Amino acid sequence: MTSKLVRAHTQVTVPDPAAACDVLATFYRDNDCSVSMDGKDHVISISLGTVRLGARDTAISIDIAAATDAAISQLKTGVITMVDQRVPGANLDCRWHGAGQNSEKGSKLPNFRELTVGHVQDLGPNMRRLRLHGDDLNPYLGGAIHVRLIIPPQGASTPKWPTMGENGLPVWPQGEDKVEPRVYTIRQINADEGWMEIDFVVHGDNGPGSRFANNATPGQFVGVTGPIGSDLPQADWYLFAADETGLPAVCRYLEELPADKTGHVIFEVSSPKAKMTVPHHPGFDLGWVYRDGSAPDGAHHTPVPDHHNSIAGAVGPMGARVGTQAGLTRTGPNPNPEPNAADMSPFAASICAIPVPADDQRVYCWTATEQKIYRQLHSHFRKDVKLGRDQCLVMTFWRAEAH
Ligand SMILES: Cc1cc2nc3c(=O)[nH]c(=O)nc-3n(C[C@H](O)[C@H](O)[C@H](O)COP(=O)(O)OP(=O)(O)OC[C@H]3O[C@@H](n4cnc5c(N)ncnc54)[C@H](O)[C@@H]3O)c2cc1C
Q1: Quick one: residue 313, left, alpha or beta (phi over 0 = left, psi -120 to 50 = alpha)?
Q2: Which of 31, 210, 289, 359 is least surrounded, with the fewest CB atoms within 10 Å of its CB?
Q3: Shortest-distance Cα residue to atom 20 of ligand 1
């Protein structure tokens, strides 16, 4: 069944429209979005929908299309944010026409809900689960499993929430009412009972998200908007690799994947004491890597070497051979080549040591890590293993420096 698309349009006046379109298209392309040309317009496909950018006399013409009004609102925010950040001199005083008119000035953000903290449960030395209660959580069911939590100032009893500006950018409360958005994953949700649960990495009071979880008591408020993300693509074999921030998402995928799927899961946590209960999936091997230097557990481990350990010809955990995958344009004798392990953390080296099946199985590799590891993994999967955009999603989930 094909769903009907809804559309919206705006124009943003900029000093050099053609250059601005090129800058934006390059940004999306560099971030693994598919960008094509239709005449002189750039057409960008992202998980939420499509963005068409065209250079006009004095402005960029922006047309967006998506399946829902909520997705249209998210696209508006995303594309205008990009213009704001990347196109110097852009006049952001624009108006949108078409769908998503619930995004009028002063309205709430798409699917905004005010949630109330309920049960608080420690899951390990640095992980805490909060049950958050709210009305009408149906939009948060489904394949897009992430949300943007809007964290109020510590101790605020009646928080002020952001509203939607006419140009598609949220208008954020300022001063003592300042709120902070942070992205998290819905670990479990029950819309009938009106709650969702989120597992927070608690790394101190050094960031709004962690501080909120660290000090959470029943009755506190937090905002939520979204959902963010898209369905996990269909594959036969999956690789999931994540530190604690991606662990809730991987747990959801393991719960939801049919029993005939196979693959490998590898987690990095601080120490063996921080290992968590992970849903059992019969087709998946599970490995753990520890930041405290403890010996890895079940991981296909490549220690950071004095000399390079060859993994060429390795037999993977599921007996998959390294070779050339049908339908892909991998070149050279070893399509899953030895990573430059000397520059890698033990976690990154362990991930890169897992051979991606080389037969005609459909494969999908999903990683969620700190930014420095992200760079190594992106290069490994895209350039070395030569997976296509539709075969891997390599993501930064956090940065080891402040926002
Ligand atoms: C799609 C997506 C889904 C995510 N899901 C989850 C989830 O379910 N649970 C979860 O806990 N996180 C999740 N994250 C990661 C989370 O958004 C980041 O860790 C975020 O930076 C936390 O915000 P903060 O306010 O605590 O810290 P920030 O204000 O961002 O940073 C403050 C300080 O804390 C440090 N810091 C931030 N995160 C960490 C960390 N994980 N470990 C150690 N130090 C850290 C920073 O380097 C900085 O020095 C997800 C991220 C994405 C993109």
Answers
A1: left
A2: 31
A3: 398
